[in-house]
Design brief:
The complex is a heterodimer of chains A (284) and B (299). With 284 residues, chain A is mostly helical. Chain A is 69% helix and 0% strand. Chain A has helices spanning 12-39, 44-48, 60-69, 76-107, 113-122, 132-141, 148-152, 159-171, 174-182, 187-198, 200-215, 219-224, 233-239, 250-270, 272-282. The radius of gyration of chain A is 24 Å and the shape is globular. Chain B is mostly helical and 299 residues long. In chain B, strand 1 and strand 2 form a beta hairpin. Chain B starts with a helix and ends with a helix. Classes of the chains: A mainly alpha (284), B mainly alpha (299).
């Protein structure tokens, strides 16, 4: 065993045990998703007479087509589109308003600057879960139930993103702003021509985190989208279960679950380096 | 934060209206969707609506008094404490175990990292559906195999099985996140320190207990706070999809109760008072988190 060989290097049996431990961990993580995938490729009969098979069947195309085009309450293709709009709206919106407010706070002296900064800071303490009933009332009064603006706006203010950009702007050399000022460049020229290109990596890293945050919202869409055609995919899955004693349409529900995972998982894997960086930075 | 806040740019642009215009979108959104609703919650928590919903009656701290005496609310507090502790311990325990293993591997730790991090992207509500499917009382695979072993799984009726299921489903996706931070923490520990201990004859477990774990404590503490916040607020989707707070109220955590009393039960005064209590809890957690970050910044 590696424990007994005393040194930090791992070899022989210890190495195998370490790999075995990792593989068990990975299997624990994968098993639920594997089962969902298998269930999305077989017919209902294979599931309702347990035990269900552990290897994929031949109904993949059929089940996914059925989910995407008709679903249970609304076509899943429609819910996917709603999720894309909501996730993009939240991610882009948060980044845009945070960039602008961080620029104002760092590069200008204006009355109320400190007050505004602390107001933004305090939003950290107000997650949507804590203010659901009154926020719902605000949205209802604005007539924004079942609308994209209702889905996006209440989640769009972000203290974290504002701090991140503020921290980054502080590290930008003063000479750049100095030069821009000497050249007579307007502040917004400086912002678009110099600051924005320099923030590219930060923006991308933050985008990954915020896209996933927006995509995975559950409680808020559950409250304000009563019309099935406005459901997002993550909250729509639960709505596909029958309320009474009827049997759920498992193949379609599991196909929908897989579809709900694909976009954020692709974003995480495709942008792994940026994702890890964004996560560590935004939590600091 | 106070430390960072004291820093100022030497070079700034002139003007007052432009910066106000730039910061306006953030401030307007914050005021309309954050501060006004939070203020409303505090204001509403001081009233009860009359039975016809026509007017509000001032009760001062009556809603709070009632809540703190209400056995269901107290039970929900206990449930939340048990639930968050279990979710935090399970997800951090599994993640630390995997991170220690991955750290021991010179080759392949990158591959395992890729394999382990993507469940971070799976929404809690989707995780809930996946675990519900495995443990479904009629069609669940795990339920069926447990049945073969003579164990009759039924989280719809059994309190502790319901709790176990929501804990595992909540902890499952969270392992990725904790793993990333633990692995980064472990890799930041200088190998020379550990090698020195190894040469002195310290076995793996002794090295871990006396050197690695203490050096990892900033990461552990940070994850502890972040995971408690997660368990308190972001697991709503798991509870809603798997148990709906039941059986009885066995898995009704505080956030779930605000939702069910406010939207299902229409008890606005009580729901608002519960929101205010949650507000206090999340404020305390945020302050703790920032105190810690400030300390780390000053190192």
């Amino acid at each position: 065993m590696a424990q007994q060989d005393g040194m930090v290097e791992k070899r022989g049996g210890g190495l195998w045990l370490t790999h075995l431990g990792m593989i068990i961990g990975v299997a624990f993580i994968f098993f639920p998703i594997w089962l969902a995938f298998v269930a999305s490729t077989v017919e209902q009969q294979a599931i309702v007479r347990p035990p269900m098979p552990l290897l994929p069947g031949d109904k993949l195309v059929e089940n996914y087509t059925r989910a995407l085009t008709s679903g249970v309450n609304a076509p899943v293709a429609m819910m996917l589109m709603n999720s894309v709009i909501m996730a993009l709206g939240i991610a882009i919106g948060k980044i845009a308003i945070s960039l602008l407010s961080a620029f104002a706070i760092v590069y200008f002296r204006f009355p109320g600057r400190h007050l505004f900064f602390w107001l933004i800071f305090l939003t950290l303490m107000l997650p949507v879960e804590v203010r659901i009933v009154p926020t719902y009332e605000v949205i209802a009064n604005f007539g924004m139930l079942n609308s994209y603006s209702g889905l996006i706006l209440p989640l769009i203010a972000s203290a974290t993103a504002t701090f991140l950009f503020r921290q980054f702007f502080m590290t930008v050399p003063d000479e750049l702003a100095e030069a821009a000022r000497v050249d007579g460049a307007k502040p917004m020229r400086f912002f678009f021509d110099i600051l924005l290109p320099m923030s590219r990596t930060n923006i991308a890293a933050l985008f990954v985190i915020l896209f996933i945050y927006g995509w995975n919202q559950y409680l808020w869409p559950l409250l304000i989208t009563t019309d099935p055609s406005m459901n997002t995919i993550v909250m729509g899955i639960k709505q596909m279960f029958p309320s009474g004693d009827d049997t759920a349409d498992w193949p379609v529900i599991m196909a929908t679950s897989i579809l709900a995972m694909i976009p954020p998982v692709l974003v995480v894997i495709g942008m792994q380096r940026l994702f890890v960086r964004g996560l560590v930075e935004s939590e600091k | 934060m106070a430390h960072g806040f004291a820093m100022e740019k030497r070079v700034t642009f002139k003007g007052m209206w432009l910066p106000l215009l730039l910061i306006a979108p953030q401030i307007v959104i914050t005021a309309v969707f954050f501060f006004y609703p939070a203020g409303q919650a505090i204001w509403q928590s001081l009233f009860i609506p009359d039975p016809f919903g026509l007017s509000m009656q001032w009760v001062g701290l009556g809603n709070f008094e009632f809540l703190l005496k209400d056995p269901f609310y107290r039970a929900s507090f206990v449930t939340t404490a048990i639930f968050s502790t279990l979710v935090t311990v399970v997800s951090m325990g599994v993640a630390l175990y995997l991170a220690v293993l991955a750290d021991r591997l010179i080759k392949g730790s990158g591959t395992y990292r890729t394999l382990l991090i993507w469940p971070y992207a799976v929404a809690p509500a989707v995780a809930g559906v996946l675990w519900l499917f495995m443990f479904n009382t009629r069609v669940g695979v795990v339920t069926w195999y447990l049945g073969l072993l003579g164990y009759d799984w039924n989280h719809v009726l059994n309190d502790s099985e319901a709790m176990g299921l929501v804990v595992v489903a909540s902890a499952w996706g969270r392992v990725s996140y904790n793993f990333l931070f633990f692995l980064a923490g472990l890799q930041a520990i200088p190998k020379s320190v550990i090698e020195a201990a190894a040469i002195d004859g310290a076995r793996f477990w002794t090295r871990f207990r006396t050197i690695v774990f203490p050096l990892l404590s900033p990461t552990t503490f940070f994850l502890l706070v972040v995971n408690i916040i997660y368990a308190f607020f972001e697991t709503f989707g798991v509870i809603h999809t798997i148990t709906g707070g039941g059986p009885q109220q066995a898995t009704t955590i505080l956030v779930y109760k605000v939702y069910s009393d406010g939207f299902v039960g229409q008890d606005l005064g009580s729901s608002a008072a519960q929101s205010v209590i949650l507000l206090v809890i999340v404020s305390i957690l945020t302050v703790v988190q920032f105190k810690y970050i400030e300390r780390r910044v000053h190192y």
